[in-house]
Amino acid sequence: DSRLAGRHVVVTGGARGIGRGIARRCARSGADISIFDLRPDVAEETADEVRDIGGAATVWKVDVTDADAVADAVEGAESELGPIDGLVNNAGVQQAISILETTEEDWDRHFGVNAKGTFLVSKHVAERMIETETAGSIVNVASVGAERPFKGQGAYGASKAAVVTFTTVLAKELAEHGITANSIKPGTIDTPMVQQWLEERAAQSDATEEELLAETIDEHVLDRIGTPEEIGHAAVLLLSEEGEWITGESIAVDGGYLRG
Ligand code: NAD
Q1: How many helices, marked H, and strands, marked E, lie in the chain?
Q2: Centre of ligand 1 from the C-alpha of residue 193, in Å
Q3: Domain containing residue 248: CATH number
Q4: Which residue's alpha carbon is nearest to atom 23 within ligand 1?
Q5: Which residue of 6, 82, 136, 183 sits 20 to 30 Å from the alpha carbon of 258, by its own alpha carbon?
Q6: What is the ipTM of this complex?
Q7: pLDDT higher than threshold 90 for residue 260
Q8: What per-residue confidence (pLDDT) applies to 171?
């Protein structure tokens, strides 16, 4: 598969979980990858996997809520691997917490990373795509929680709904520059975030982690949770020429969760 051959794709939160799967999957379609993550040590493992597949990879220590750090990393990534053709805003945080227990700090953390982080990286990368006249693509990782949240996803689900709405406007405003923007709403994917979420929910209820996982699986029409690579497949489509007539869309990749 050479659908992303010669393209430079930035993946935020690419050190582990879905971001790592997306980075690997894009590399298998020929992309070079820049990873922006809080944890550069762990992100280096993803970069090595990308190199093993045959792509170039660079790692940047970035907190996506920090505008200066984002600007520096975008500049650095371009100087190493050339103009950015694709951006996947995947960095995100989630804590299972009821609304009555949610503090102002909890709320701000979810909106800071998930919503503001997506805005900041999109803005900086879009400016560069326009400057370099690159007909690029932006893919924002939202969540099925934007539409069908569980209890305990007040701040998280609302911040992901913000990502979906923001992406619609991004698509409209960047269209004249030949740039597309879409969001993906993953269902439950096997990652460290989901492990932690099961632990938190088990601590708050009488159910065990295994029981909660079984209940979650039951909500997915295909009767299993997904893999990071399965989100990568959708990202490759949206980042490639085959996806160039898709914009402003929000695609559920969820084993049928939203229809369950
Ligand atoms: P994860 O916690 O396993 O990985 C998140 C990555 O983002 C980590 O590498 C972390 O270091 C990085 N990160 C966190 N805050 C950051 C910041 N401020 N700046 C830079 N990097 C930061 O999570 P995951 O399950 O892989 O989720 C990835 C994305 O997919 C998130 O946006 C999440 O909300 C979304 N999502 C996940 C699921 C799921 O079931 N796993 C479902 C729907 C949506």
Answers
A1: 9, 7
A2: 7
A3: 3.40.50.720
A4: 193
A5: 136
A6: 0.99
A7: no
A8: 98
